[in-house]
């Protein structure tokens, strides 16, 4: 593999490590953006330039920014970071990490049993992706529309600013 | 067809009495009583008109139900079924009578449940399709559960739950065995059916047969009940209302015994022979252990309940003796135990109505006040200790005589059971009717309705004791005795 | 080095996935948990692309796009829900949201 | 005449008395109760006359088939042969006399009707017992008399002690019945029938003499007989059975029921002859019982208990006779014993009533003057029991046994000595009782004199106790064998090994001497009681023995410790049923599982996520396990 | 897309169109009754759309979807179930939130997700169907925003669903990476051709099972179930219990059949352990639970375990048993939730056992219906549940799964305890002066629905032949 892959992979892992250890959510989010960018590089190297672009634009550019805006909206400042520091005691880490490392170990063990012949990365160019997307997978695209619609309706209903909506009964009694 | 009618009469009467009860409790009771009496008359007419030379199976009735699985609505009657069904209707009618005054709340639902459970029991005795058998087997549990759980005494819910869980557990094992048999039969003959007659003589490996037989046997042992599966019984019998206790002791237990005779032995002859010593041992343990427990009880109904454990041990002993004498004894025991224990429960209920306790320590000297009741108890207590002249003696004697041919040591111990039976039986008389009486107030002795019930039972038990031949002739037709 | 590229890519995805998993396990802040899930989803997406590059088919990349769409929808609904919860509990501590148990 | 009428009449009258307990007047009850037995007796006498006239072997009657199943058949069949006739006559005649007596004795009893119903029922059952043609019907009667015994012992049900005695009687005899039941099973197993005649016929073909099987069967039958007849080791119930009204004691626990064992063994004598070991056992039991019971009778204070122990002792004689093969001697003793023991019991009853239900002999005394009629009949009875030579029936019947216990084929010198010792004891305890009651100072006032209905039966029995002996006289004294001849078709004549008149004389003389010296000792003890005698009796060792004997050799205590208490204790501690604990434990285990698992449903999101991760690890682990390990 | 494609996808397309129209309607004129009516109409139309589709089966729309008897049967089942849930919803929501209209949109969307699951045979459609279902459910579960428990349930479901989706995706990626296929038959063929045991693919299956297991609510992915059942609005809980699980199960069956799952004993082992654990954990947890919603949740965990026993039997009968059981389970669960719905007042849900104490003596018909439902869950004769359980046991015996069956028997007995406890509560005689908290609403529509469900339940219990024949025909295609 390309050294560039290793460098990108290392950056991705390191910055993800930073994400999961930060107390301040803003820092974590920014590290996550770095991680996503590194992953984008990896994606590029695996012959998916279009996906790399989407990763940068949608993931890092849209979703993360949405999160950042949300955090800013809730105005989570220093105290939340302090609280996070209080929660993330070293011993909290031990059991989950152990468990997850076991999981990783098993996963790696199983993946390494792969007996496929070594072959190079095959580049799939964006056109092929497009052809597939609007060819055989057109129904999936339409389903994605429905998926997004569900997301929108759900977010709309849940996110509506709450009015003073007490139940009729409670209204009658309390007022 | 007439068999289906028997079931339908009960079913319709069950619904009708529930509906009618909204208007009139009395009418509801009469409907229940009437339906049972009609059925009783039908069965008796069948019995009287039946000639011994005829085919073993009468009124074979068969309609496809779920042909997909080879399940059919298959009813048939032979001597054993006839006797059991007659007993069912007889005790059923008495149960309605005994509840006449005792049950004054939710009368309609009570009779609905009572008739429904009787319908289920009748179904169990008549069906010749294993799926249908299981169906009825389970169907009778729910109304019985209600009979215990709604109209029972203080710890009724506990008792009802226990009863339900025990019998269900056994039932499910039986379901496994039924299905196992179904597939074994299907695999060997390529005919997939639940029909009893087809499943008879299913060729199978001895190992398979052993396991399948165990499935059936455990279900029936729970119902019979045999030690160590008996612990649901005292609770259920004690807590149930009088009619509930009568149906439980008189009929429900018989379904287990019936199952052993009808299914375990004929379906798995070889495996049954293998297990016989163990089953007989369980029977003997039941006889002695039940008697011992009965001796210690201070609750009248609980005491009677444990005597059931003891008496049903004879059924187990006889069923696995594999000879006709024992077999006839088992049939007799099923009937006479139903009569005598039912009678004792009825009297316990009548007594409870009068003195509002079941605690033997609070009784004593009641003979002065209740000589009629005392005489009745005396008769049935004597029945339960196996006094000749009463039906129980015939049953126990035949069982022991038969089982002696099969296993002598166990029979010796079972015979010792008669001695301990004497101990607990006489204890009843002593604690309840004899001894000093410190009650100042008078108690009403048996009233007309109770007299009718008791006299009917007394007549039957004496009839069975002095002239059991009609019963023996009827059950004789069955050549179940394997080996 | 002669590492199978698919294996290497899958391993990277696996490591990222597990890191997300550790994070979701140790965090109590709901936003952090949502973040961790995003890490995991992203790792899964990466795995698809890696697989796609091995077979040279576009399926994996198409799947990646759908994952992206799903992640977006998920985050939007999730944030709306977190907002509700924040209004009610006045905190983002997931342990506070444990009124139902037993 | 129909033999079936004999038991049916009492049954019918019992039935009528039970149903009419409210409606019937006392007089009607007495008439029905006694009349039925009289009728029955008349029929019995008629049949006996017919029997004697025609010289028939037996009269049989099939009433109906009781049950028939799988090769087993038993009918309600009656058979009257010589043996049955003897028993039937004794039962009906003595029974009638006792009934008449009871009509007076129980006059103040509120449950008059119930009493007579039970008594009639008893007579009916007893008649079935002795007339049964098959062992199952015999067993019916056997258990039926047990039931009536139970009902009548506990007749005064308000006293728990009576109830206890009644239960004890029933349960102890049931132990014997169990053995008998098993004997029945075995007989059916080998002979295929319970028909007595068939069994007796086939037994000789099936078994050679001394065959273990037949020995076992005979021993089991003996077990049944031992229970019913209150012989060692099941004798403990009879003294307690005295809790019942005195006519009951007279009828059931002296004259008839307790001798059912004798009847059974006599009836199945063929089997016993085939099993010499069993026969010897019978004799040994009889010998030991008669001595032990004699000692116990010697030290009782309750008049009825004296009689009870004496009954045990006298039945011991009968068993001894049976064991020696002297069948007719046993039956003869049964007859005379029925007469004089009924007489004694009823006499005692008359005394008891007279003294306002006082049974303690030490509170009686000096009654000779006050109850002269009773005194005389009681004297006759006592003399007969003590076997005063030549004039009493008891002498002839008992002496025959004493002699045959040595000389008969199954006899032994040890038996003879025991029997002689018994004769001494009998004389002692009988007259100790007699003197205690009728001599000495007046301790309790007589407040009620027995009426005619009570006294007339006593007179009749007194006569019978005297003259009945003359139907069977020993070789040495006239050699009358009316009785044994009568029984000859059924019971074989005894085989006497030593037909020596001298020896027989010696034996008779010795026994007569011993009986008389027993009386003398009693007289010395009770009436004269010199200082030395009293001192001797007050010695601590003797006192201990007196207590020990009075408690019936502590058999009660032995059974209590060995059987009753362990059983009661076990059943008490197991009242809640240990098996149930198993299921309760199971239910608790389920509950525990529930609570453990409910804690995992903590409501914490992180915890749920951890569950998912654990699941993931588990799945992959199982995968690796199934693939590689 | 061809005409045949359109007709075959009729129900799906009808519903999708209906959502859009409904959304527009809501945008134009908010009216609860109108949206309700329209949704009912949409369901009915979708149901009608099945009829023309029958003509074209089996019809594949490569690579994503396949419409055959099996999927059409389940489509119908889901639509009927959705229809009934919808019927029961009106009064429930009428009483509660001021904005009810979105509920219907989300319900329709969720149903679409479920329908996609039952027709899909490709990872992509699987994933999208699953996510449509999940994301709609986030909204539905937290729908009653004023209630704290709704939000809590929503966030829990969201987090866990996202997490399990991630596992599912990673697993799919592994499968894809090592087989090169995302369509089920392709994977099956690739596995058969591989010539060696594709361990990495198995790892992928294992991880996918987490996603599937989460939706099915089987151990150890079951922990959300009680909380979500308790917090979600009752009709939604009914939806989750039935449609969501049913659709996933259908998909699992199809997937398992296509990849020839029976060839891989390690998969059998994993599922077997899960099945046994589910039965025990579900029943144990329900044992002394006082909240009826939670009891139903736990019981559904156990019931999934029972279904897995049939699934593991590896015989044709097993699949038939699942299909039949599913029908019975749908009727029973919706019926049980329906009773809780009609029993709930506008103030609070009737969710504790105490609310049902002596119900039989106050509202005999409701109690009878509930009793029938509970007995069906317990598998007592005269109910569909009995035949269902019988069928499962039959399959197990046929497949010689004695150990699993034994576990099933033990668990049936444990399960009986809590069902019968509920029944006992309803039939117990309340002490004088004892008042329940909840005044039941008992709306007419709900009552009628319940009675119809009960009749259906008993009819299936007494005469199951017709349904069995239908299922048998349908399954012949699959195997």
TrEMBL record, chain A:
Domain of life (superkingdom): Bacteria
Subcellular location: Cell membrane
GO molecular function, one term: NADH dehydrogenase (ubiquinone) activity
Top EC category: translocase
Pfam families, per database record: Oxidored_q3
Predominant subcellular localization, coarse grouping: membrane
First and last residue of the signal peptide: none
GO CC terms, sorted: plasma membrane
Keywords recorded for this protein, A-Z: Cell membrane, Membrane, NAD, Quinone, Translocase, Transmembrane, Transmembrane helix
Transmembrane stretches, start-end: 6-23, 28-46, 52-71, 92-112, 132-158
Record-stated family: Belongs to the complex I subunit 6 family.
Subunit structure: Composed of 13 different subunits. Subunits NuoA, H, J, K, L, M, N constitute the membrane sector of the complex.
Protein task: NDH-1 shuttles electrons from NADH, via FMN and iron-sulfur (Fe-S) centers, to quinones in the respiratory chain. Couples the redox reaction to proton translocation (for every two electrons transferred, four hydrogen ions are translocated across the cytoplasmic membrane), and thus conserves the redox energy in a proton gradient.
Name recorded for this polypeptide: NADH-quinone oxidoreductase subunit J
Upper classification of the organism: Bacteria, Pseudomonadati, Bacteroidota, Chitinophagia, Chitinophagales
UniProtKB/TrEMBL annotation, chain B:
Intracellular or extracellular location(s): Endomembrane system; Membrane
Signal peptide: none
One Gene Ontology molecular-function label: NADH dehydrogenase (ubiquinone) activity
Keywords: Membrane, Transmembrane, Transmembrane helix
Family that this chain belongs to: Belongs to the complex I subunit 4 family.
Domain NADH:quinone oxidoreductase/Mrp antiporter transmembrane, residue spans: 128-416
Keyword Metal-binding: no
Listed transmembrane segments: 31-50, 82-100, 107-126, 132-151, 163-184, 211-233, 245-269, 275-296, 303-322, 334-352, 372-394, 406-426, 446-466
A UniProt-annotated Pfam family: Proton_antipo_M
Organism superkingdom: Bacteria
Lineage of the organism: Bacteria, Pseudomonadati, Bacteroidota, Chitinophagia, Chitinophagales
Protein name: NADH dehydrogenase subunit M
InterPro entries: NADH_Q_OxRdtase_chainM/4, NADH_UbQ_OxRdtase, ND/Mrp_TM
UniProtKB/TrEMBL annotation, chain C:
GO MF, any single term: NADH dehydrogenase (quinone) (non-electrogenic) activity
A GO BP entry: ATP synthesis coupled electron transport
Keyword terms: Cell membrane, Membrane, NAD, Quinone, Translocase, Transmembrane, Transmembrane helix, Transport
Superkingdom of the organism of origin: Bacteria
Reaction(s) catalysed by this chain's protein: a quinone + NADH + 5 H(+)(in) = a quinol + NAD(+) + 4 H(+)(out)
The EC number(s) this enzyme carries: 7.1.1.-
Membrane topology of this protein: Multi-pass membrane protein
Residue ranges of the TM segments: 6-26, 31-51, 63-83
Principal cellular location given in the protein's record: membrane
GO cellular component, one term: plasma membrane
EC class name: translocase
Classification via NCBIfam families: PRK05715.1-1 (NF004319), PRK05715.1-2 (NF004320)
Cited function: NDH-1 shuttles electrons from NADH, via FMN and iron-sulfur (Fe-S) centers, to quinones in the respiratory chain. The immediate electron acceptor for the enzyme in this species is believed to be a menaquinone. Couples the redox reaction to proton translocation (for every two electrons transferred, four hydrogen ions are translocated across the cytoplasmic membrane), and thus conserves the redox energy in a proton gradient.
Subunit description: NDH-1 is composed of 14 different subunits. Subunits NuoA, H, J, K, L, M, N constitute the membrane sector of the complex.
This protein's name: NADH-quinone oxidoreductase subunit K
Species: Chitinophaga niastensis
Gene name as annotated: nuoK
TrEMBL record, chain E:
Cell location: Cell membrane; Endomembrane system; Membrane
Function: NDH-1 shuttles electrons from NADH, via FMN and iron-sulfur (Fe-S) centers, to quinones in the respiratory chain. The immediate electron acceptor for the enzyme in this species is believed to be a menaquinone. Couples the redox reaction to proton translocation (for every two electrons transferred, four hydrogen ions are translocated across the cytoplasmic membrane), and thus conserves the redox energy in a proton gradient.
Main location: membrane
Record field: catalytic activity: a quinone + NADH + 5 H(+)(in) = a quinol + NAD(+) + 4 H(+)(out)
Classification lineage: Bacteria, Pseudomonadati, Bacteroidota, Chitinophagia, Chitinophagales
GO cellular component: endomembrane system; plasma membrane
Domain NADH:quinone oxidoreductase/Mrp antiporter transmembrane: 120-415
NCBIfam families tied to this protein: NDH_I_N (TIGR01770)
InterPro entries for the chain: NADH-Q_OxRdtase_suN/2, ND/Mrp_TM
GO molecular function terms listed in the Swiss-Prot or TrEMBL record: NADH dehydrogenase (quinone) (non-electrogenic) activity; NADH dehydrogenase (ubiquinone) activity; quinone binding
Membrane-spanning intervals of the chain: 6-28, 35-58, 70-91, 103-120, 126-145, 157-179, 199-224, 236-256, 268-288, 295-316, 322-344, 365-388, 400-420, 441-463
Subunit structure: NDH-1 is composed of 14 different subunits. Subunits NuoA, H, J, K, L, M, N constitute the membrane sector of the complex.
Nucleotidyltransferase as UniProt keyword: no
Membrane topology qualifier: Multi-pass membrane protein
This protein's UniProt keywords: Cell membrane, Membrane, NAD, Quinone, Translocase, Transmembrane, Transmembrane helix, Transport
Keyword Membrane: yes
HAMAP family given in the database record: NDH1_NuoN_1
Gene Ontology annotations of biological process type: ATP synthesis coupled electron transport
EC primary class: translocase
């Amino acid at each position: 593999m390309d050294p560039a892959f290793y460098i990108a992979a290392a950056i991705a892992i390191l910055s993800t490590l930073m994400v999961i250890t930060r107390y301040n959510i803003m820092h974590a989010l920014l590290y996550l953006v770095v991680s996503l960018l590194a992953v984008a590089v990896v994606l590029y190297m695996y012959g998916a330039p279009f996906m790399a672009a989407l990763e940068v634009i949608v993931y890092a550019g849209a979703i993360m920014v949405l999160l950042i805006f949300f955090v800013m909206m809730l105005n989570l400042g220093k105290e939340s970071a302090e609280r996070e520091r209080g929660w993330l005691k070293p011993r909290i880490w031990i059991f989950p990490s152990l468990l997850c490392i076991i999981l990783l170990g098993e996963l790696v063990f199983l993946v390494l049993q792969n007996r496929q012949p070594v072959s190079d990365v095959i580049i799939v160019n964006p056109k092929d992706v497009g052809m597939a997307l609007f060819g055989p997978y057109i129904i999936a695209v339409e389903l994605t529309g429905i998926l997004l619609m569900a997301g929108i309706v759900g977010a709309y209903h849940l996110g509506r600013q709450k009015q003073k909506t007490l139940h009729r009964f409670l209204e009658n009694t309390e007022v | 067809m007439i068999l289906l009618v028997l079931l339908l009469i009960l079913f319709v009467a069950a619904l009708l009495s529930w509906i009618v009860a909204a208007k009139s409790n009395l009418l509801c009771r009469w409907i229940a009583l009437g339906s049972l009496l009609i059925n009783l008359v039908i069965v008796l007419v069948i019995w009287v008109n039946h000639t011994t030379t005829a085919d073993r199976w009468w009124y074979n009735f068969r309609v496809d139900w779920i042909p997909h699985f080879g399940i059919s609505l298959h009813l048939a009657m032979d001597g054993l079924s006839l006797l059991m069904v007659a007993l069912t209707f007889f005790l059923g009618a008495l149960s309605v009578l005994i509840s006449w005054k005792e049950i004054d709340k939710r009368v309609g639902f009570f009779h609905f449940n009572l008739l429904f459970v009787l319908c289920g029991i009748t179904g169990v005795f008549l069906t010749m399709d294993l799926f249908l058998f299981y169906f009825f087997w389970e169907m009778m549990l729910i109304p019985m559960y209600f009979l215990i759980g709604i109209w029972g005494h203080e710890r009724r819910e506990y008792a009802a739950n226990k009863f339900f869980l025990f019998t269900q557990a056994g039932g499910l094992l039986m379901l496994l065995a039924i299905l196992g048999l179904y597939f074994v039969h299907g695999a060997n003959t390529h005919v997939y059916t639940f029909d009893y007659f087809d499943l008879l003589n299913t060729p199978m490996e001895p190992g398979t047969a052993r396991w399948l037989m165990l499935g059936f046997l455990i279900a029936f042992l729970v119902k019979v009940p045999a030690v160590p599966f008996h612990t649901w019984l005292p609770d259920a019998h004690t807590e149930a209302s009088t009619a509930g206790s009568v149906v439980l002791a008189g009929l429900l237990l018989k379904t287990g015994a019936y199952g052993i005779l009808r299914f375990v032995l004929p379906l798995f002859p070889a495996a049954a022979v293998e297990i016989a010593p163990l089953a007989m041992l369980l029977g003997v343990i039941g006889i002695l252990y039940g008697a011992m427990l009965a001796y210690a009880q201070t609750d009248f109904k609980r005491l009677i309940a444990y005597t059931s454990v003891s008496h049903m041990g004879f059924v187990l002993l006889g069923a696995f003796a594999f000879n006709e004498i024992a077999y006839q004894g088992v049939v007799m025991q099923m009937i006479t135990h139903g009569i005598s224990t039912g009678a004792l429960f009825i009297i316990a209920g009548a007594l409870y109505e009068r003195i509002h306790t079941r605690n033997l320590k609070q009784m004593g000297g009641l003979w002065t006040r209740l000589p009629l009741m005392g005489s009745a108890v005396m008769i049935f207590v004597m029945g339960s200790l196996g006094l000749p002249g009463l039906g129980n003696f015939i049953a126990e004697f035949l069982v022991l005589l038969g089982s002696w041919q099969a296993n002598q040591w166990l029979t010796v111990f079972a015979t010792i059971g008669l001695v301990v039976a004497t101990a607990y039986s006489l204890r009843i008389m002593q604690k309840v009717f004899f001894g000093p009486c410190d009650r100042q107030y008078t108690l009403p002795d048996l009233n007309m309705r109770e007299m009718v019930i008791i006299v009917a039972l007394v007549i039957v038990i004496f009839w069975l004791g002095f002239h059991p031949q009609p019963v023996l002739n009827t059950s004789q037709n069955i050549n179940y005795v394997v080996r | 080095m002669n590492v199978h590229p698919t294996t290497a890519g899958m391993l990277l995805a696996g490591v990222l996935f597990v890191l997300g998993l550790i994070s979701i396990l140790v965090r109590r802040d709901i936003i952090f948990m949502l973040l961790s899930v995003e890490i995991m989803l992203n790792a899964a997406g990466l795995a698809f692309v890696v697989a796609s590059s091995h077979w040279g088919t576009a399926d994996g990349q198409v799947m990646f796009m759908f994952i992206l769409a799903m992640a977006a929808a998920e985050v939007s609904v999730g944030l709306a829900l977190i907002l509700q919860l924040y209004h009610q509990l006045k905190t983002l501590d997931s342990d506070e949201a444990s009124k139902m148990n037993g | 005449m129909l033999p079936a009428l004999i038991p049916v009449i009492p049954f019918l009258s019992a039935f009528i008395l039970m149903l009419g307990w409210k409606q019937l007047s006392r007089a009607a009850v007495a008439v029905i109760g006694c009349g039925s037995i009289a009728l029955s007796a008349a029929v019995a006498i008629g049949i006996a006359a017919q029997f004697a006239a025609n010289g028939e072997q037996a009269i049989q009657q099939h009433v109906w088939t009781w049950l028939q199943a799988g090769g087993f058949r038993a009918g309600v069949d009656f058979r009257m042969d010589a043996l049955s006739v003897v028993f039937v006559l004794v039962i009906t005649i003595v029974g009638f006399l006792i009934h008449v007596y009871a009509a007076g004795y129980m006059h103040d009893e509120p449950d008059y009707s119930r009493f007579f119903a039970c008594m009639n029922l008893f007579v009916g059952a007893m008649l079935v017992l002795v007339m049964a043609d098959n062992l199952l019907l015999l067993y019916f009667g056997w258990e039926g008399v047990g039931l009536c015994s139970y009902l009548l012992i506990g007749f005064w049900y308000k006293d728990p002690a009576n109830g206890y005695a009644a239960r004890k009687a029933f349960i102890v005899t049931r132990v014997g019945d169990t053995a008998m039941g098993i004997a029945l099973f075995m007989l059916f197993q080998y002979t295929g029938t319970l028909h007595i005649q068939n069994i007796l016929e086939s037994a000789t073909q099936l078994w050679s003499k001394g065959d273990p099987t037949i020995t076992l069967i005979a021993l089991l039958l003996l077990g049944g007989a031992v229970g019913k007849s209150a012989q060692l080791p099941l004798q403990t119930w009879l003294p307690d059975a005295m809790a019942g009204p005195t006519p009951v004691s007279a009828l059931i626990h002296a004259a008839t029921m307790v001798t059912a064992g004798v009847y059974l063994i006599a009836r199945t004598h063929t089997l016993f002859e085939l099993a010499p070991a069993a026969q010897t056992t019978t004799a040994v039991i009889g010998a030991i019982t008669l001595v032990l019971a004699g000692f116990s009778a010697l030290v009782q204070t309750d008049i009825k208990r004296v009689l009870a122990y004496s009954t045990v002792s006298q039945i011991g004689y009968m068993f001894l006779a049976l064991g020696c093969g002297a069948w007719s001697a046993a039956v003869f003793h049964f007859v005379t014993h029925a007469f004089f023991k009924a007489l004694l019991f009823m006499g005692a009853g008359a005394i008891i009533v007279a003294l306002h239900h006082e049974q303690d002999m030490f509170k009686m005394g000096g009654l000779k003057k006050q109850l002269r009629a009773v005194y005389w009949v009681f004297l006759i009875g006592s003399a007969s029991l003590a076997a005063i030579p030549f004039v009493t029936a008891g002498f002839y019947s008992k002496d025959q046994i004493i002699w045959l216990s040595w000389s008969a084929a199954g006899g032994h010198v040890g038996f003879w000595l025991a029997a002689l010792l018994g004769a001494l004891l009998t004389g002692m305890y009988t007259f100790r009782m007699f003197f205690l009651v009728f001599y000495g100072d007046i301790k309790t006032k007589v407040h009620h004199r027995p009426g005619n209905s009570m006294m007339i039966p006593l007179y009749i029995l007194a006569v019978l106790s005297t003259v009945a002996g003359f139907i069977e006289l020993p070789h040495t004294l006239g050699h009358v064998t009316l009785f044994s001849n009568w029984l000859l078709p059924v019971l074989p004549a005894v085989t006497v090994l030593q037909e020596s008149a001298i020896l027989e004389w010696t034996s008779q003389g010795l026994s007569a001497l011993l009986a008389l010296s027993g009386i003398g000792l009693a007289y010395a003890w009770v009436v004269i009681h010199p200082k030395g005698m009293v001192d001797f009796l007050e010695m601590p060792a003797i006192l201990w023995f007196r207590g020990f004997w009075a408690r019936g050799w502590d058999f009660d205590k032995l059974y209590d410790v060995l059987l009753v208490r362990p059983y009661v204790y076990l059943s008490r501690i197991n009242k809640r049923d240990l098996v149930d604990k198993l299921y309760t434990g199971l239910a608790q285990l389920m509950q525990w599982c529930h609570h453990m698992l409910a804690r995992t449903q903590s409501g914490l999101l992180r915890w749920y996520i951890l569950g998912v991760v654990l699941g993931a690890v588990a799945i992959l682990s199982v995968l690796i396990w199934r693939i590689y390990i | 897309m061809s005409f045949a494609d359109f007709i075959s996808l009729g129900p799906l397309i009808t519903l999708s169109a209906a959502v859009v129209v409904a959304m527009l309607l809501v945008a134009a004129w908010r009216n609860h009754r109108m949206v309700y009516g329209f949704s009912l109409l949409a369901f009915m139309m979708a149901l009608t759309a099945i009829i023309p589709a029958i003509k074209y089966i089996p019809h594949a729309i490569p690579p994503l979807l396949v419409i055959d008897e099996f999927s059409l049967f389940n489509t119908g089942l889901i639509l009927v179930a959705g229809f009934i849930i919808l019927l029961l919803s009106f009064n429930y929501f009428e009483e509660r939130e001021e904005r009810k209209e979105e509920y219907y949109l989300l319900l329709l969307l969720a149903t679409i997700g479920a329908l996609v699951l039952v027709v899909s045979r490709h990872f992509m459609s699987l994933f999208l169907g699953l996510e449509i279902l999940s994301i709609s459910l986030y909204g539905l579960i937290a729908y009653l925003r004023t209630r704290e428990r709704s939000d809590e349930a929503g966030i829990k479901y969201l987090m866990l669903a996202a997490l399990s989706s991630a596992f599912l995706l990673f697993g799919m990626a592994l499968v894809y990476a090592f087989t090169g296929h995302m369509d089920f038959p392709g994977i099956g063929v690739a596995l058969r051709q591989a010539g060696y045991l594709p361990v990495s693919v198995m790892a992928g299956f294992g991880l996918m099972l987490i996603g599937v297991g989460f939706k099915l609510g089987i151990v150890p992915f079951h922990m959300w179930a009680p909380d979500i059942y308790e917090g979600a609005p009752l009709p939604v809980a009914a939806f989750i219990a039935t449609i969501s699980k049913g659709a996933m199960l259908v998909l699992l069956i199809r997937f398992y059949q296509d990849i020839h799952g029976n060839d891989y004993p390690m998969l059998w082992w994993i599922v077997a352990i899960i099945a046994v654990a589910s039965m025990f954990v579900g029943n144990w947890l329900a044992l002394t639970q006082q909240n009826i919603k939670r009891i139903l949740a736990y019981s559904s965990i156990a019931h999934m375990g029972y279904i897995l026993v049939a699934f593991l039997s590896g015989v044709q009968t097993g699949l038939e048993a699942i299909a039949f059981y599913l029908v019975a389970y749908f009727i029973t669960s919706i019926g049980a939730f329906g009773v809780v719905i009609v029993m709930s007042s506008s103030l609070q849900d009737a969710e504790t056992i105490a609310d049902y104490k002596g119900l039989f003596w106050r509202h005999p018909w409701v109690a009878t219906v509930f009793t029938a439902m509970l007995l069906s869950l317990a598998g007592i004769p005269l109910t569909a549940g009995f035949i269902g359980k019988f069928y499962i046991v039959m399959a197990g015996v046929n497949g010689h799964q004695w150990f699993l069956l034994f576990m099933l028997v033990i668990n049936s007995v444990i399960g009986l305890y809590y069902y019968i406890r509920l029944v006992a509560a309803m039939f117990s005689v309340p002490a004088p002066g004892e008042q329940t908290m909840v005044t039941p609403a008992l709306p007419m529509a709900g009552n009628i629905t319940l009675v119809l469900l009960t009749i259906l339940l008993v009819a299936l219990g007494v005469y199951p032949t017709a349904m069995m024949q239908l299922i048998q025909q349908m399954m012949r295609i699959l195997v």
